[in-house]
Amino acid sequence: MKTSLRRALTLIILTVYSTSSFGSTTAPFALTLEAEENPVNVGSEVKVDITLQNSSNRAIHVHLSLAEVEYTFEVRDGQNRIPPETEYARKAKGRGYFSNDQIFYLQPGESLPKDLLVLTRFYDMSRPGKYTVQVSRAVPKELGGGTVKSNTLTITVVEPTPEPAK
Questions:
Q1: Does domain 26-158 have CATH number 2.20.28.10?
Q2: What is the pTM of this model?
């Protein structure tokens, strides 16, 4: 009887320890989007910076390559529609890429270098108006799996201001 009770208590303790250590619902990193320029003139490149910060209480390894490979991104216009894809985006789907991957070891609170994403390479954002952008990134299985989403950023595309007559 004592052996069974001891085994049961050991099993309960191990279960509680493992779920509190590894089954945490807190994401191991956070994503933040910032516009390089806002508002943006029609015809100009729309660029955003992505920052990945270790939000866990332990050091993590993070793999980094091209932003368009590492992140899934969604752009919507003022009517909540996805803008038309560019020719580049259509050709890039399913195509391999040359990898220049890097692995970073981030301590708690540390961030990767900002990652630049040029949205106008993938979407036609030539119409004036407000566009919303959000990126997400898969969480590796060894860090708990799932997906982390960034903040939603609003970018305004405007007609250029005419220069005053001299």
A1: no
A2: 0.79
